[in-house]
Amino acid sequence: MTMTTLPYRVTPARVLRSEWHKFWTLRSTWITLAVTSALTAAMGAGLGAAYDGTGEGGMDTVMFVLLGTQFATINLGVLGILATAGEYSTGQIRATMTAVPRRLPVLWSKAAVLTAVALPLTLATNLLTFPLAQSFLTGTDLSASLGDPGVLRALAGNAAGLTLLAVLALGIGALLRSVPTAIGAFIGLVMILPEILAMLPYAFVDDAVRYFPGKALEALTTAQPLPGTASPGAALLAMLLWTAVILTAAAVVLRRKDV
Amino acid sequence: MLTAHELTKRYGDRTVVTDLSFTVRPGTVTGFLGPNGAGKSTTMRMLLGLDAPTRGHATVAGRSYATHPAPLTEVGALLEARSVHPGRTAYHHLRALAHTHGIPRSRVEHVLGLTGLTDVAHRRVKGFSLGMGQRLGIAAALLGDPATLILDEPVNGLDPEGVLWIRNLLKSLAAEGRTVLVSSHLMSEMALTAEHLVIIGRGRLLADTTVTDFVRESGAGTTKVVTPEATALAGLLTAPGTDITTDTPGTLLIRGTDAQHIGRTAAAHGIPLYELTPASASLEEAFMDLTRDAVEYPATLQGAAA
Question: Start and end of every ABC transporter domain (chain B) (predicted)?
């Protein structure tokens, strides 16, 4: 065979290109992203319009406006899980790993693609949802503008947190290789486990729970830090660490286990 | 060129492949035969680096598959299980695979045309028939214009037209100098397609031979002759390459020549023939004899015969 003039070769940039192509050529991607943004904006506007102006005490204005991002957490998490675990359930993974038998570039590319899509999308959605909801909240105790202290930081922090959670879910999907199991584990880790742990009567557990992904996301989403939560910087760092640890574990498993 | 060096694969305490060594050479179609559960798919997955062998190693053109800079140009593979996301179109599935190697769009369109999928290229794979799915798998295998093809049960579930298409495709790929390894659990199919055979049972090598040798040794190609002048006829037919045996007086089992030659020789010398029967090519039986002890779940009939 003539090997000397072969132009074809696997490179990290090409694997990234491939994963980018895969991401956008599934209908589920478009639907999930559209639904995620629409739900966040609609919930923000709806809650703003329904708010009767009597303060319920202590609700952060950004947190209130972005309550719809609870759905975004799940939607984007599922999108991340589908990118990895979904390949195992469909069998696509065999084609993927035959093309890129070194395997790891695939995981990094998937994480990069999801980040590159989720971060701008959630940021834009938040920047749109906030003024939209605020147009109903003028004159109430939740009234605020983008220029108020902490507001922009909280809107961006929420976007960063949601993106990190999506990548974390992607890592869980790669670890568990089953869509339903991974969704269960993701929801358990982000939404259920912190609530259960918080009920335990130990102060150190309470301190630790602040740095769990779901709680850290809440801390990132408030304009004014609430008592008993992590500082925005610490929350972001905690989420970065969670995501890094899960992705590293996923990489080790991907290298070692049979496809 | 594909080489398996003492491949062993264990899943827990179940050993699926044991000390399996063989070489697949370019230019011919090599049939990889074995009953269901013999370890064919596992072996193919080890050749592709999808499964890591417990012991031993596999090489493609002298090195392990994963270390090639452009794996899809080395090996194109069709695995038995479907390896496509059903929500993606055939075109985009191939484009995504092509991107990993920098393979251009024109090559994607070429393999779609080659496999007859151009008209359905923009349909989602979910709606594909089994045959269309197999064609897409073969299109993916051909994408990198690979020197070697590994195809796991490619004719499974295909209609006669599809079977014929694959048979001719494999032969033409081998004729171009490529290495072709194709698995099957049907000896009859391999006899029509392959020249070389690697036969395994329960994960062990049973035979590494050519189809011609297998046919000769299997008793297929034998002609049974019943004549009152057996000794005289045997004398007349004796020639290099002809093998004559006799089990009962007056009956000859002749290999290496055909019924026409035997009949004409007998007639020319006025030897009466009571019977002149070419044995129907019972390749499948020979294959079953070879693998009888190695089938995972033998049917009771076979068990009684053994």
Answer: 2-227
